[in-house]
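A further point concerns the way the authors explain their paired sequence and structure data. Each protein is reduced to its one-letter sequence and a matching series of backbone shape codes. An entry of this sort, consisting of the sequence and the corresponding backbone structure tokens, reads as follows:
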Amino acid sequence: MKKLLFSLGVILPFFASANVVIGTTRVVYPDNQKEISVQLLNNGSEPSLVQAWIDDGDIRSTPETANVPFLLQPPVVKVPAHSGQQLRISFLNRHALQADRESVFYLNVLDIPPVPENMQGKNIMQLAVRSRIKLFLRPSHIQNHADESIQHLVLKRNKGTLTLTNSGPFFITLVGISDGTSKSNILGEGIMVAPYSTLNVAASSLPAPGTSLAVTQINDFGARIQTHTVMQ
């Protein structure tokens, strides 16, 4: 999701653009890799200045305040028009790894577009655009079974609450739960269930125990995968 982060200038009119995009919707870092790369693409007709950093879950983080076990290079780079740039990410601190489960961090990319030529010398308010996606740090000995993570999810009805229990080592990202008889999404919005944890979600209407449910999950490649389970 992209969010307006800060502004430059003092008076209207304002100018905003989001030309630089991340080439994936999520990043998986197997802990046995020395380095991974993430592709940035500038779809605009002008170069953009990009600042990138990783945070541990605080959306208010900045490059100066973020404290994570990664090295990201380059932290600031100019991306030419209709071109790309690779960000290189290295995992530095093995002691920060939870050996029995994934950990989640977030990659931030701030696109600071240039002032258009027809606005040069004028007083404008310019908005930079921040993109933020999940970065999963995955112990190498569990990485080959991520596609089976949904098998570790149990859904249970508890009055007006849906209880989701994840007994596996992977984060499970869900964007939809339906009983198959209607297009209504029980979730309302996407959620992520952490490894070996339980998450309670308020719901006004839940199918009865024993109902077959269609569950839509986001996999490692950002694709939507639908599987079926039974409400407990």
Residues 1-15 have pLDDT under 50 and may be disordered.
